[in-house]
Specification:
The protein is α+β, with helices and mostly antiparallel strands and 231 residues long. It contains 5 helices and 13 strands. It has 2 domains: 3-50; 53-225, no CATH class. The longest helix is centred in the N-terminal third of the chain and has 37 residues, at 15-51. The chain starts with a helix and ends in a 15-residue tail after the last strand.
């Protein structure tokens, strides 16, 4: 008689204990699987909620600028050297070690433009990326889709007397106001926002990016691990 024969005979004589043992194992495994599933679901839900806050990394050019500002009031500054990004180099962002933690990458170009005798800040964006990233933006009208469409902040629209459907000559092109951004209390209220490449053309900054907003997440590592070496 071998050892497994003795074990099998013992189990046959104690069927009640075997049943309780099997039930205990099944309940234990089921409990662990359920807890892991709940934890995974809660973590995913938290990540999705955090993503709604938009970008959590802002990549800006290196600068020796000494700004003189406090409490949102700027009185001037001394600008020694400002560098900007080349748009063609932005592909390197997706090649970093922790690239799987990157969500939206939203490049922007900024510059002042003369509009109806006023100096207005223009911002060029990739609307396909920007609008899903800025979930708190609420638009009157139709979201810009073509390169000739403009999104105008509430304050800028009031100051320039712009309404939906109005045309606006900028540089050598004529744009159409397809949407007006409802007040946000942020800088966008006083901006004119257009397609990235169209605004680059208007500002004379073809192939140039002023800053990049990045939505990144890192569940099992510190945010410092999502680094952008060389930028």
């Amino acid at each position: 008689m071998k050892l497994y024969h003795i074990s099998y005979s013992n189990l046959k004589r104690r069927k009640g204990k075997v049943i309780f043992l099997v039930l205990g194992l099944v309940l234990g495994i089921a409990t662990i699987v359920t807890l892991l599933s709940i934890t995974e679901s809660m973590t995913r839900d938290i990540e999705e909620r955090l993503d709604r806050f938009g970008a959590n990394i802002v990549m800006v050019p290196k600068s020796e600028n000494l700004a003189l500002s406090y409490g949102g009031i700027t009185v001037g500054g001394v600008n020694y050297a400002v560098q900007e990004f080349a748009e063609k180099d932005l592909g390197g962002i997706r090649e970093i070690e922790n690239r799987e933690n990157l969500g939206a990458v939203a490049p922007k170009v900024l510059g002042a433009a003369q509009v109806m005798g006023r100096q207005v800040l223009m911002m060029g964006v990739d609307f396909a990326v920007e609008l899903p990233l800025k979930t708190w933006w609420h638009l009157d009208g139709v979201a810009p889709a073509a390169s000739g469409d403009l999104l105008v902040g509430a304050e800028a629209a009031a100051a320039l007397h712009l309404a939906l459907g109005d045309t606006l000559p900028l540089g050598s092109r004529t744009f159409t106001v397809t949407a007006i951004l409802q007040p946000t209390g942020a800088a966008e209220d006083g901006m004119i926002i257009g397609d990235l490449h169209a605004v680059q053309e208007v500002l004379g900054k073809k192939g140039i990016v002023s800053l990049v907003e990045i939505a990144a997440f890192c569940r099992d590592c510190p945010i410092t691990a999502t680094a952008l070496p060389g930028w």
